[in-house]
Design goal:
heterodimer, A: about 425 residues, mainly alpha, Cytochrome Bc1 Complex, Chain C, 2 domains, about 60% helix, B: about 200 residues, alpha+beta, Rieske Iron-sulfur Protein, three-stranded antiparallel sheet, heme (chain A), transmembrane (chain A), transport (chain A)
Chain lengths: ~425, ~200
């Protein structure tokens, strides 16, 4: 029997001699820094969720009807009549929210340890593109159940393009294929959600990993192990502070996977809507083009950007400013490698100003999430009395948060380009070597 | 052979022309795919005028009818609501509807009440920010979003506010007053939406 396998192996390697070396390059001979911590779980978890979304998504399409007349009923059919349909759908909806949880943590890790800096700018740009495509993917998936939140979510998001001067109106009609979200819109969003964007996403993930493996992984100390001493237990020429990705980090990641799946299973089985945070109540009402739900807001993962739109008033007869603000808040993240000219990567050895700014940035993001989810409408009356003008408080708080969000980038540029940063000495090697 | 000597200029010319012609072909091939996203003939055809009786709409009451799949608000404005309109002017972006909102209504509705008859408001109920349907909050009492509320519309999506003539307040995301559609009165108690009054167009 062993002979049969080895002869099949030989047969393949004769015809594809690069297969085994490619595997080694990316797995057993990919040397990652040995000091990865908890923050390094989220890349592999994102990959896990992606696989979950693809597999559950394929099974959902088997019972879903992408027409305005049938979509809402077909989702109810999946939930009630299809054997285990509820589980597959809840895995998909919970996966969508958890995707953003791990992606946001993954991005924060990248910012905190300076993983976007030279030579990893390309890794960062590809990652940001993944984030962008993921947002489009999530938005279109959100429209598919054709509940009332789906409908109005689609209307609002597509109308963002309507604020573009001159071509806006035509562009909106072009995207929707009608004068409001309709059958044509649902059909094309379905096509984009289940085939076009997933293909793009997979390609970008492959490129993201390929770009990473070209330059090697960063680490919590932000030191380049390739520039450190050579020679480890497996290879005399490879970095001394590197260990093979497989089996060392695959096994480590499995621990994260176990913990993550336990949390995910708890949500799926006990709290699939998570109190309206993962699945919104108003989406259990069928789409109605004449009635906007009274409590309309996006799912939590878009609320920070949604809050920015809401906080910027119109001026000069156009609402484009809020939309520019929203797209700008994402565009600035793309530009981070060039905004931040600091040579020291990890927050561990950066100046106090950077640490304060990063903390403020995270708090501003969470503050915007609170505004966007309308949580402040509950919180402020509790804190400051029930007779306050909530709109005024929301606007004041939200505008300060928006200013801090953008202020982070302005400060970072000034701080690093004008040489205000006082960094600590960076160690020669990762701090936990030997 | 005669062409054994390579002529780089000729080769570059051929490469460039091939690339250009190929590029034109690709662009031409993309056009049908782009155009396929435009509203179809079926979608464009669904736009007939709508006729509505006004007999059962009490003062202060709003009725919503669908016209071109858009919600059209028909409101019988009460005398107190009408009286509050001029008082809102200082707080509005374009009270006269002759600035940034000059194209938001037909000429015959470009007046203080934005209507043909003062009491009857006929308006496309779509927020000019991002297209939600604002809630009708007709009562003149303190609201959580405005302690001095004088009746009007409140958009649940991004909290834009309008007065009882669909005129947008300052300091909200919406830039313009809501749209007044073409409409006319067939008789005293019947309105037709989608058709201008005779002689107006």
């Amino acid at each position: 029997m062993a002979n049969v396998f080895s002869s099949i192996g030989e047969w393949v390697s004769d015809r594809a001699p690069n297969l085994a070396p490619t595997y080694r390059k990316h797995m057993t001979e990919y040397y990652a820094p040995k000091n990865f911590n908890l923050w390094y779980y989220f890349g592999s978890l994102a990959l896990l969720v992606l696989v979950n979304q693809i597999v559950t998504g394929i099974f959902l399409t088997m019972n879903y009807d992408p027409s305005a007349a049938g979509a809402f009923d077909s989702v109810q059919y999946i939930m009630r009549d299809v054997e285990w349909g509820w589980l597959i759908r809840y895995m998909h909806t919970t996966g969508a929210s958890l995707f953003f949880v791990v992606i946001y943590l993954h991005m924060f890790r990248g910012i905190m340890y300076g993983s976007y800096k030279k030579p990893r700018e390309l890794v960062w740009l590809l990652g940001m593109l993944i984030f962008l495509v993921l947002m489009a993917e999530a938005f279109m998936g959100y429209v598919l159940p054709w509940g009332n939140m789906s409908f109005w979510g689609a209307k609002v998001i597509v109308s963002l393009f309507g604020t573009i001067p001159v071509i806006g109106g035509t562009l909106v009609e072009w995207i929707m294929g009608d004068f409001l979200p309709a059958d044509a819109t649902l059909n094309r969003f379905f096509a984009l959600h289940v085939i076009a964007l997933p293909l793009v996403l997979l390609l970008l993930v492959v490129l993201h990993l390929a770009a990473l493996h070209e330059v090697g992984s960063n680490n919590p100390d932000g030191v380049e192990i390739k520039k450190g001493p050579k020679g480890n237990r497996w290879d005399a020429l490879k970095p001394a502070d590197g260990i093979p990705f497989h089996p060392y980090y695959t096994v480590k990641d499995l621990v994260g996977v176990g913990l993550f799946l336990a949390i995910a299973a708890f949500i799926i089985f006990f709290q699939p809507t998570l109190g309206g945070w993962f699945l919104e109540h108003d989406n259990s009402i069928a789409a109605n083009n004449l009635v906007t739900p009274t409590q309309i807001k996006p799912v939590w993962y878009f609320t920070a950007f949604y809050a920015i739109v809401r906080m910027i008033p119109s001026a000069l007869g156009t609402a484009v400013w809020g939309v520019l603000g929203m797209f700008g808040s994402i565009a600035l993240l793309f530009l981070l490698p060039w905004i931040d000219a600091g040579k020291v990567k990890s927050v561990r050895y950066r100046g106090t100003g950077y640490k304060v700014a990063l903390t403020m940035f995270v708090l501003a993001f969470l503050g915007l999430v609170m505004i966007g989810t309308d949580y402040t409408d509950v919180l402020f009356p509790k804190l400051f009395g029930s007779d306050i003008d909530i709109t005024a408080w929301d606007n004041a708080f939200g505008r300060v948060m928006t200013l801090i969000y953008f202020g982070f980038f302005v400060f970072l540029w000034l701080y690093t380009h004008l040489g205000w940063e006082k960094t600590k000495p960076v160690p020669e090697r990762v701090t936990t070597h030997d | 052979m005669a062409n054994e000597v390579v002529d780089p200029g000729r080769r570059r010319f051929l490469t460039a022309t091939t690339a250009v012609v190929g590029g034109v072909g690709v662009v031409a091939a993309v056009v049908p795919f782009i155009k396929s996203w435009e509203p179809s003939a079926r979608a464009k055809a669904a736009g007939a005028p709508v006729t509505q009786s006004l007999k059962k709409i009490e003062p202060g009451q709003q009725l919503i009818v669908a016209w071109r799949s858009l919600p059209v608000f028909i409101v019988n404005r009460s005398p107190s609501q009408l009286a509050a309109l001029p008082k809102q002017d200082p707080r509005l972006v374009d009270p006269g509807s002759n600035g940034t909102s000059s194209d938001q209504q037909p000429k015959y509705a470009q007046n203080a009440t934005r209507s043909i008859k003062p009491e009857w408001l006929v308006m496309v109920g779509i927020c000019t920010h991002l297209g939600c349907v604002p809630d009708y909050v007709g009562e003149m009492k303190a609201e959580p979003f405005d302690p001095n509320w004088q009746g009007g519309y409140y958009c649940p999506c991004h909290h834009s506010r309008y007065d009882m003539a669909g005129r947008v307040y300052q300091g909200v995301p919406a830039p313009k007053n809501m749209v007044i559609p073409p409409y006319h009165f067939i008789d005293d108690t019947t309105v037709q939406i989608g058709v201008d009054p005779q002689g107006a167009a």
